Amino acid sequence: MSMGQISSQSSDMTPLVRVIVAGAGSRGENYGHYASIHPERMKVVGVADPRKFARTKMQHQHNIADENIFEDWQSMAEREKFADAVVVSTPDRLHKEPAVAFAKKGYHILLEKPMATTPEDCTAIVEACTQSGVMLSVGHVLRYDPTIHLIKKLIDKGAIGDVVHIQHFEPVGFYHFAHSFVRGNWRNEAESSFALLAKSCHDIDLIHHWAGARRCVKVSSFGSLSHFRKEDKPPEAADRCVDCPIEAECSYSARKIYLDRVKRGQTGWPVSVICPNSYPDIESVTEALKTGPYGRCVYECDNDVCTNQVVNMEFEGGVTAAFSMVAFTEKICDRQTTIYGSKGEMRYGGHDVSVFDFLTQRWNVHHPHPDALKHYGMGGHGGADYHLIKAFISAVANNDPSLIRSGPEETLQSHLLVFDAERSRVESRVVYCGENDSDTADERNNIR
User: Fold this and answer.
1) Dist. CA 131–CA 103, nearest whole Å
2) Structural domain contains residue 432
3) pLDDT in tens, 258-272
4) How far apart (Å, rounded) are the C-alpha atoms in residues 290 and 310?
5) Cβ neighbours, 10 Å, residue 257
6) Contact at 8 Å (CB) between 203 and 170?
7) Domain-terminating residue out of 140, 171, 203
8) The overall pTM is greater than 0.85
9) CB burial class (10 A; 0-12, 13-18, 19+) of residue 163?
10) If DSSP codes are grouped into helix, strand and coil, which group holds residue 321?
């Protein structure tokens, strides 16, 4: 049984993992759904959230006892340990304190990405988990996507020889960006974090993972906020879409993104996010658009995060990588990747991995095993949400941290790379990874 585990066991002698949830938003609720699919493996036994509707909803979903319902994570952490693991899915800027507190209590931790919003806080979380002897899994769900996982397997098998260059692109999607990064929770750096951390730490983590054991030695980045600015607002536009005379002509209309979906019976994401105190229907969504942040004109918001950004990286041994993130795309998060090697070229477009062999001059298409694609209704991130929580629960049940693909040390390194990239963008210079402000030019050259 895992370290400090207090769970009962199911009939097949596999430990039932008891989990508490700090933050009952969409991510916390989503991970909790695994307990409904596999009640013999996981049970949600406690929840903390300041919003009564959110915590009550999760209480009803999992039949949680009244004494295990909390208005804040602090009250839950003060209790004597009553579960094996905790899902920390609080807002980005509120990750460090609960993660450290629960680690010190002996809980294994599934921490939603990003780890935290400063390098110091990320480091503190890893140190707390290491010192407390608990497992840490960070919500880099793409590491668990069966097809993306196949990329790493093929690289390690030598399918394209030595990796020379990685080209990776994330199309955020025009209405996804308007929802999350113009009107939504991640629109403002002071309230959450910068876009590269909030949205694309997934992607930098993948590039870091594909590069293998090589350390990134230097990075440069460029990016800016385009279009979603007050100066781009049409003169006739109103401050809210429900009052706007030209709403029908706007691609980012809140009526189109939310209200039209509800009228078609679609109440999942993104509609499910905008009504924090009720289930979404025509009346509640209409009220949210009249009074809440998601009904605002996209040209009248307090957003300041980048809509487009590029990151260039050089790893040890001369391996290079280039990443691009763009808001203004038809496709939503359908990543595109090409990896160039000494013996071949690899392409990924969402459903399979194609490898061109320089020797045979032929393409071979690779698919993950069909069993790996099963997600039992947890289809978020292409089913990767299911595979992440499955791996975490299995790791806790079997006391086997090797089952976690997004563990503390490598995830910390990829997060530090994200911070270095943003530093490059803000300071308009190449950043040598791991440098200190006191480094001289000669010392930076020696890093190479």
Assistant:
1) 9
2) yes
3) 999 999 999 999 999
4) 36
5) 22
6) yes
7) 140
8) yes
9) buried
10) strand
